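User: What would this chain look like folded?
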Amino acid sequence: MDENIKKGIKKLAENVEIGAARSILRWKYKKEGKEAPGNDELKEQSLRVAGKAHEVIAERGKNVWNELKKVYAKNEVREDSDE
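Assistant: Here's the prediction, encoded as structure tokens.
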């Protein structure tokens, strides 16, 4: 895949994450009966929330992948011992 296409897709995904975080923050402020901060502050909060969410998802994804590898390795050992 072309490097520019990859960068474009990555930037699009980042913008979607930030937009989703911004929408959730606006909803949260409204639910709590508070006035949402200005666009600049809301953008800053959205960037922080999206960044943290990305970190958590990446770390948990690694944990899931490692657990899957362990399960696969155990199944492979069992199959070898059955023969």
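The chain has two helices and no strands. If you want, I can go into more detail on any region.
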